[in-house]
Amino acid sequence: MMASYASFGNSKVDKFPQILWEQKSSSAYKNLCLVSAVFAFSVGLTIGILIPLMYFNNGYTVSTNNSSSSEDKVLPNASSIIRTIFLNNSYGYMNVSKVVYPTVSFVESSKPSAKENNDFIENGIYWGKQIENALPEGYRDQKHTIWSDYVNKAVAIRMENGCGRMQNRLVTFQDGLQGCVRYRQNTDQIQGELFSFYLAQILKLPNLAPSAVSIVDLDSPLWSNLHNEIASAQWNSNRPIVLTQFISNLNSANIPAVFKPLERHLNKYDVMNMTKSLLMDKNDVLKNLVELAQWSDLIIFDYLTANLDRIVNNLYNYQWNVNIMDAPAHNLAKKADSELLLFLDNESGLLHGYRLLKKYEIYHSILLDNLCVFRKQTANVIKKLKTKGNIGKLLRDMFEKRNSATVKDILPTLPDKSVKILNERIEKVYNQISRCESIFSNT
Hints:
Helix content is about 55%, strand content about 10%. The protein is built from 17 helices and 10 strands. A 5-stranded antiparallel β-sheet has the order 3-4-5-7-6, sandwiched between helices. It has a 3-stranded antiparallel β-sheet with strand order 8-9-10. Strands 1-2 form a two-stranded antiparallel sheet. InterPro entries: FJX1/FJ. Keywords: Membrane, Transmembrane, Transmembrane helix. One of its GO terms (cellular component) is extracellular space.
């Protein structure tokens, strides 16, 4: 009995430390699990908060850095979308030292021959002699002067709906010629149309139809036969209008493939690929390059004027309608008999477009920043304007010399603020030309 008890007692004493250790281990294990769970929860919560904050902070940097006005904050996501869609293929966002273009297929990675350079591209960034010689004549100084003199003596006999918006009218003169009248309640749209026309002449662009300013005066020979038509159109007397020569036989003009989202750049390598394409004969190649040469002028012109009613319209609406880049370009037409591109309806230029630069500048810059082939004549004018800084004087002198005292009393000249912005944009175009020279020039 004693032995049995002793045996039981020794066994109990031997197991007590083990039981105590097991209880302590279990408690420590539970504490460790609790600490691990709290730590994991804290880390997960922190990461879950920081990642969205970092994402949205980057997405709205542009918006928060601008002023608090509603116009400055319009569509913060739209800018991000447009940059993604339209800038990813830009040479400006790649390593230019390697000159790699994922959307351009270099033919045998060879440089163009001297003959190819002279024919299609000169010095790496200018349209060559063959392209320049094939460009349509268009409308130059003499034709503008003839039209201006004609309007001063013309007599209108009929006025009817036509030429675009509701208060525009198609006017027929007594000799059968016709003109388009642009009437606007806002004077700055008339200024924009007129001074954009003057700027095109300074740039030596032949793509704008001859235009002149007149005043709605029922006692003048021009309007004396149209009292009823003017009343029906709800025009007010003593309002400035722009009278543009009517151009017939026009077709719509589409945006070239190189300026659509899958391409979106034009440089000498793109031209090389077009000239070596097996899908087009030589006549089609030349025709396409002549059109692109006019587009290079259009891109510069629309950037300088900040025109909202042409390509910017397509770019802006692309975020909602991906097919819009396949539609005809707004306010752009092509003469069926000469392949001349006509830059129509420039009323948003230089004033209204400048007021909306904060909202639309990204769209204005897209094509300019990816253009590296220019007409040499246009580039030379830009360089001269940049050096002299006299664009304001040139435009105002044209306005003073070409218009009567009556017109100048009613229609203001170009404001100083617009001249300042125009000079800044001339410098931007100049810098783009210089940049392209540094990258693509053969010398």
